[in-house]
Amino acid sequence: MGRRPGTTCGPPAGDGRRAGRGGAERTGDAGEKAMTAELVRGQNHPLPGTRLEIRVSAGTPVVAAATLGDAEGKVLGAEWVAHPGTPALSGLEVSRQATADHRLAVDLDALPDAAHRVDVLLALPTADATRAGRRGPARFGAAAAPFVTVTDLSGAEIAHYTLTGLDAETAVIALELYRRQGAWKVRAIGQGYAGGLAELLTDRGLPEAPSLARVIHEAAARSPARQAPTPPRPSGSEGDRTRQAVTPVLGPDPAGAPPQGAGPGPEYEAEYGDPGAKPTLQGADPGQPAPAQPLPSPPPPPARSPSRPPEGGPVDYRHPRRRTTTPAPSQPPPPAASPTPPGRPARPVAGDANGWSMDERLYNQVWGMFEDLARSVAAYRSGVAFADSRLEKELDQVLSDPRARVGGQGDTARESARARHERLVARAQEVLDRDLAQLATEAEAVEAALPPAYARWDSPVWHGYRVPVEMPMALRLGDLRLPEAGHVPIPMLVRLPLERGLWIDSGHTESPGDPSADAHGPRSLALETAVAHTARLLAAHPAGGFTVHAVDAAGSGARTLARLVRAGVLAAPPAVGARGVADVLTRLTQRVDLVQMAVRGGAADSLPPGFDTSRQLLIVHDFPRGFDDRAVNQLRYLADEGPSYGVHLMMVADREDCAGYGPLLDPLWRGLLRLTPVADDHLADPWVGHAWTYEPALVTPGSQVLARVLDRVAAARRSVGR
């Protein structure tokens, strides 16, 4: 099926997370919030500072080391390798022992001038260097996938990376910090070596690699074992979420059970024996190892202790004058599911994810449902692909055997192979149906508990809508579905404030459900979709916290935009003509320039009196009509710089109408989140490779809910003088 240029779909957070998976917020030097980057293999991310900490959580003891490389990536000698035997170099320090959790300290400014690269290495302890009774897995494929996090000195996460897809490797290059044009970045590598550290170091250009690898393992074995305290993961990340309703189908579970659904399971091996290399999926979420207990505080000095413990008795580590109290939680704990009979999964309840508020718990739960559905369908497709490849292999064997060509022996073998294929597919379908039934039950429970910002337009919660006093965490823009699970919709939630603009594609779609029969159908439906999304944005912000402008150069959308005009929620009537377009774009461009200068100059409190501090949305209909070259450049500027300074775009346009601009507008389209007015499978999931079908959040024909919501928003705006 042909597609327009694809839009990358992350989790329900939509823009930039994604790829998905619950990035946590951190605060940068300028006080602005940024999202933790979740890297995939080969992806890079800029580093905001030079003093860093690299945290490793492997679930099994590993040896951590680091190498310095020159501009070509070559390690000049053993003195450029930090390892348990030589743990400290200039600007770099690693652990002295093999442990499941490591913290590496890096000061990029203190590195040698000739060092342009820092590689973080992980290796499993060798059998010779491992002490008796402490034998671990012999390859990374038999252990939980290592998880590496880059943080600043305050502990705020900058980027993290899960090393998936490892099998026979015993050493791996996890991350690379590199300098490019004076700026440092981090890149996810994930390059493994079955030959261990010796092969890895040889590949880095070290002639003494075998002897150095032996020295590293011996030094790690001599050092006393220690378990480093693992910092807690952010509450908004998927790693904190406790899932009870759906059996995970990819990645090892925290208790060490083998992964389910990532390839042929025990039932496959029982019938065929070991099938060899099993299909795996990039981006599978590994189970998180149990967090290590924090190291106890040292005992108080004897002089300050009220009494010494008896000889041989336990030592009291508590401070003699410190009284500990348990702070009351700011929000009630997540609701607990009712007791269920033994052997049956717990009935899902809304809000069973972690979070400080019900809003955050529901957001994280929706994200967990997205993960579960993606993994379940990926496991099903993997199982079917394995069954198909098995069938093809067995049929080839039958054809290659001359004895099977005579008599009915060949027919019997082919029928037997097809029967086994059908049994394997049926098993995969059975597992999928079981998981989908649980997900459908959870989706039903969650849907009924969603607040207005997360709910569908036909939800009863809109009948009691009140203008919020603060902005919610996210906003629903539609639903996401997969072909194998069309009856289980996942709400598509995007984080607020919007981090990128929205593009409502008014061109022809190739979906079979497209109701448009003429060239004007998609354009009208696209503008109606834009009005529905605008109403959601207005309803999600406090009174006076969101201002909407509209540009309709040809006036062709006046009838649809009249809903917003009649309600009185627009800052001014829609601008028409080239002059009107230029006036609106100039005002918003100057606004972005002013706020940008104030923020960068540290004078955000010095904006002019009466300056409108609300966030701004510009609806652009029927682009590029009425736009000259200057207006196009201003529009591109607003798309690039506007979201960071409170100005957002909503484009209603057909890309084919802009073909005359050539590649000039390609960055504009790539910077916007493409949505469609009808169901379309244009959203790509880079995590497990799914193509998700997006369904827009539209108002049911004949419903008055949109008009009532806009009236309440307008009344709230008038009450604050807007």
Automatic annotation (TrEMBL):
Protein origin, superkingdom: Bacteria
Domain TerD residues, every copy: 98-203
Composition-biased stretches (Basic and acidic residues): 15-31
Pro residues composition-biased segments: 288-312, 329-345
InterPro entries: Stress/Tellurium_Resist (IPR051324), TerD (IPR003325)
Disordered, as annotated region: 1-31, 220-353
Name of the protein this chain belongs to: Export associated protein
Organism: Streptomyces daghestanicus
UniProt lineage: Bacteria, Bacillati, Actinomycetota, Actinomycetes, Kitasatosporales
